[in-house]
Amino acid sequence: MLRNWGALVMYTMISLAIFYVGFQLVNNPSSFLSSIIMTIGIAVLVFGAIYFLFLRNRVGSGSGRNSNEMKKYKQAVKQSKQKYKSSQPIKSNKSKLDTKLSVNSKKKKPKRKNTPNLRVIEGSKSKGKNRATF
């Protein structure tokens, strides 16, 4: 019975709030919109203050492990950029004759520079049952 009483009070409060919001919206929409904007602004300010004062340090540093991993990741990205930056060809201004020659050379199938290193592993394969026959 106590649970039903608490639910009844909660539903009554929610219905009165909805009724008040509808009443304000119909009678004074400009005041309603300004109060909604003020409420949202205050909520954003409070959340921002709580985040910057308390939560920012916890989320960013973690247990110290995340910051070390992030440093390692940034170092790896930096090395990768340096590696692939030097291997890319530098584009230069070409004349019309060069462009015609390059169009003809594009028609040829280019050879792969980096072939995959594949290895064949030989072994006996056991024959499975032929499931097509019963």
UniProtKB/TrEMBL annotation:
UniProt keyword rRNA processing present: no
Superkingdom of the organism of origin: Bacteria
InterPro entries: SA1362/YqhP-like
Protein name: SA1362 family protein
Region span, Disordered: 60-134
Annotated keywords: Membrane, Transmembrane, Transmembrane helix
Compositionally biased residues, Basic residues: 105-114
Keyword Membrane on entry: yes
Membrane spanning residue stretches: 7-26, 32-55
